[in-house]
Design goal:
Layout lengths: L11 E8 L2 E7 L9 H8 L9 E6 L5 E7 L4 E2 L3 H15 L3 E6 L2 E9 L2 E5 L28 E4 L3 E6 L8 H9 L9 E9 L2 E8 L3 E3 L3 H13 L6 E6 L2 E8 L2 E7 L1 E8 L1 H6 L2
Parallel strand pairs: 2-3, 4-6, 10-11, 12-14
Antiparallel strand pairs: 1-2, 1-17, 3-4, 4-5, 6-7, 7-8, 8-16, 9-10, 11-12, 12-13, 14-15, 15-16
Length: about 280
């Protein structure tokens, strides 16, 4: 067994990335394992006293090209993070020269591809549509939940609750998202989306992420919203989703939900030993 990495003298290298403003701290631990505690994740996530992120992703060796582990800004874990997966896939493609990758996550095996024109695609897997898999607290039809507004429940390795509204931009998302993130029908909390159909196979969507808050974009939320819209007959299975931070393209195929969009590696840095010690 390899020894756990010690950063008390060297500091902790990291990369700052984002997909449409959905931002991440990425730690490459392929050479030597490390432990990220909830307290460390919370400290790094702080946008004034740390670096700031929506999710933290750790790259480790896997059965494919790499294994990815995700933590939210509050230190909780998430099995899936679509935009972070695309960002890391682009980093690994640039590193290796490959245009096709297999990444493993707690959600399962994810396939990533170079989509050309600076875009990266990832297959986020088949959606979870049964109440027990999402999970919900009790058996029910997931297409229209017994909640005001009749939202749709979808699992993408993490739970989602999608409200279709007349104008997503008019929803007070701070209040709305907090209220439904903790709804008793969702025992593991939920990501909350408000979505408006703005044209044929086009959706305006805003998102509140569990354990994070309002974000400029979310890959798994975009996938869940596309699936919900198709199930309700509002769109086809291939849609454009316009988020606060930009646009993603979602294609719900037989082999899973494919998500395509741009990524950005903003900078690389090192968390100092002094900073890390302050969080222990």
């Amino acid at each position: 067994m390899r020894a756990m990495q010690d950063f008390s003298n060297t500091g902790l290298p990291f990369m700052k990335m984002h997909g449409l403003g959905n931002d991440f701290v990425v730690v490459d631990a392929r050479a030597q394992p490390l432990a990220i505690s909830p307290a460390l994740a919370q400290g790094i996530a702080h946008r004034h006293f740390g670096v700031g992120f929506d999710q933290l992703a750790v790259i480790t060796p896997g059965d494919g090209d790499a294994h990815l582990t995700f933590l939210n800004a509050d230190g909780s874990t998430s099995a899936a993070c679509g935009n972070a997966t695309r960002c890391i896939a682009r980093f690994l493609m640039d590193e290796t020269g490959k245009d096709h990758l297999k990444l493993t996550t707690d959600r399962g095996d994810l396939e990533a591809r170079d989509a050309g024109n600076g875009l990266t695609s990832v297959n986020m897997g088949r959606p979870q549509l049964d109440w027990a898999d999402i999970p919900l607290a009790e058996a029910m039809d997931t297409l229209e939940l017994p909640i005001e507004g009749s939202p749709t429940a979808t699992g993408m390795g993490n739970p989602h609750c999608t409200f279709f509204v007349e104008d997503a931009d008019l929803i007070p998302l701070e209040e709305f998202g907090q209220r439904y993130e903790h709804h008793p029908l969702y025992p593991e909390r939920t990501n909350v989306q408000v979505a408006t159909i703005t044209g044929p196979d086009r959706i305006r969507m805003r998102v509140w992420e569990r354990g994070v808050g309002q974000t400029l974009a979310s890959g798994s939320s975009s996938c869940a919203t596309a699936v919900a819209a198709a199930r309700r007959g509002l769109t086809g299975r291939k849609v454009q989703i316009d988020l606060d931070g930009g646009t993603l393209w979602i294609d719900w195929r037989d082999d899973g939900v494919w998500m395509t969009g741009p990524t950005s590696h903003v900078f690389s840095g090192v968390l100092t030993p002094q900073f890390l010690e302050s969080l222990t």
